[in-house]
Amino acid sequence: MTLDPTERPRLEDVHAELERTLINEYLRARGHDPDALRARDDAEAHMLLAEASTHAAARLAEVEARAHYVHELRSGAE
Questions:
Q1: Other CB atoms closer than 10 Å to residue 53's CB: what's the count?
Q2: Residue 39 belongs to some domain of the structure
Q3: Who contacts 1 (Cβ-Cβ below 8 Å, separation ≥6)?
Q4: How many domains does the chain fold into?
């Protein structure tokens, strides 16, 4: 059975979705509505969105590092 490539999400799409989720989670944890914050055009909104983006990037890097580590462990065990 061959998998149809259209049935699997592209890796970039998965990362983008995870990044959006992490950003929204960060903003909600600080008491902000992500959609309302994105609609604003003031310095505070820009600062909060930048902080959320930095947080998400750090978390994504952590996920990537862990995945790489697990891959290394499994590759070495074979």
A1: 14
A2: yes
A3: none
A4: 1
